[in-house]
Each structure stands twice: as C-alpha cells, then as structure tokens.
Amino acid sequence: MAESLWKRFAELPVEIEGYELERLEKPVTRGFTRVTTVVHLGGGGEEGLGEDVTWYAEHHDREQAAGAVLPLAGSWTLESFSDALEMEDPWRRWAYESAALDLALRQARTTLAEAVGRDPEPVAFVVSPGLGAPPTSTVVRRWLELDPNHRFKVDPASDWTDELIAELAETGAIVTADYKAYYRAEGDPPPDADLYRRVAEGFPEAFLEDPALTDETELVLAQHRERVTWDAPIHSAADVEGLASPPRVLNSKPCRFGRLSELLAFYAYCEANGIGLYGGGMFELGPGRGQIQYLASLFHAGGPNDVAPRAYNDPEPRPGLPSSPIEPAPEPAGFRWTDPAATL
Fold this sequence. Notes:
By secondary structure, the chain is of the alpha/beta class. The chain is 35% helix and 17% strand.
C-alpha cells in the first residue's frame, strides 16, 4: 500500500505563490495555555492549511518574529516540496507538509479520501482530561454525568492513590493509561514500578502506553505485555521494528512522523503486520485537529482515538457536545474536516 499510495501523492503537483503564519492561543484543560501556529500556503486561488503543534510557546514566538522567510514559492510536486524542506523538527515539518497536501488536493479538486481510495468512517474518540491537583475522579464523573458513554485516557502520576485508581476503575470507562515515560526531565526520579503495577492491575483491560522499561517495570508489566502500546518513540516504521517486542496496538500521531511518506509507510507496515492503531492529539487549536480526525476516519476509525472535537479540550466540561463516534465530515476538497462542535 505505501509505495503505490506515496507514488500517487508524490507526483501530485502543487503551485505555491507564498505563505503566511497565524498564531493561535487558548486556555485548555490541564491548566495551561496552548499556543500553535497555522501555516497558510497560497497558490492558484486556493489555500492550504497545516498546524505546527510544537509544545513550547517560545518556538511559536520565534517563528512569528522571523515571519515568512522560507523559499516556498514555486511549482512543486509533493515529493520535491518535501525534499526541499530543511526541517529537522518533525512537528514543524508536518505543519508544512500537511498544508502542501491540503493545497495540492484543493488545486486538483479532489479529497484526501479520494486520493487514498478509502471511504471515511465514523470516528470513535476518548476524552483526555486532567484530573487536577491533587488529582481526583471528579472531572471524569462530571463528563459521565453529561454522557455515560464517554471513555477516557488518563495519565497516572506519582501522587495517584489506591483510592483514586479504585474510583476511576469503578466507572468502567478508562481505556488508556499513559505512563508518559518519554516526557520525564533530567533529574526526575526513576520510574515507579509500584505505580505501574497498581495502574496495570487497577485497569485490567486498558492499554498501557509509553512505560519506561527498567528491570523493575518490565517485571511488573510482563503479564500485561499485550496491552503495552507506544506513542512518543514511534516516528517511522523502522521504529516499530526496533521495539523490544512486537506490539498489538500503537498510537499514531502524524506530527511525530513529519513526512507524509513516512506516515504512509507506517500505515502500510502496521496493516501488513496486523498492528492495530488509534490516534493521538496534541491540543490542536486549528485545522490540525480536523486533519487527525480525517486520518483516523480512513485508517483507524474504531480505536480509542484521542482526537475528540476541540471543545473537549476546554478547561471545563460542558453539555451538548457531539458524542462518540463523530460522523465523517470531510470538506468537498483538500485535507479538511469540519469541526462538529464549531457552532456550539
């Protein structure tokens, strides 16, 4: 699938006359203000959009200060455009590659689904709330009061008590527990094997994402290995091959791959090797959220996708939001997806 798909995309022409950058900023759940940058590529009377979801506001401030300095104007194919981008950072690269893909598809008057040759399917999603400080089950219960069918991704931390785990487990709604081992800073204490054990045993059916593998944690997780899944270390199909043991399921975040060609190769590898997928989000504020929903609809619609409509990332739960799954909402052309909660 990868070679034939990428060959079709690689040769797709795209005319670029110039580009602009738009800074987005908004308070989100977990008590912080998210900043992203939208890339607007213009050409042939059309506009292509992508979103740089780099975590740090300083990155976006520097990008805004520099302005549109890249030599992007010209006649390209998607392959030659990708080859010309001198960007090591995959998150930034994905913003420009996804904008070029959107623009090329719009100029060709076609959609991503038509180019891939698949029909979009309804996208199942989970809610990924912060639990506060100190953490409690309150926000999960508030979401369940609004919709008892909600399912959740949670991020266990060292201050999680047995009581909290029991309260969350009682809901029967926790489907992913993310240990976030790859977000640890230098000088942080070593992984808490006891926390790993309590979480794995407390949520016996949940996926266990991104553990740190030490002698102690591997011993704890040995009997739960089929539920272990990975996110942060996966940037290519080669990274999947390099895992210590074959995964049953993986988290797919396009911004970690950077190149469209790498993402398509990853999808093909997982399909060929029977590896299930679910999508992950990065608190996108703009078009990037719809784009990962679009990809989920084509490649892993039924997974516990952490790609809820943007309103689910607002600081407080509120009623009336779309329930899971969300119906396919591709725009008539391009790499665009209409936010089902945009008018709520």
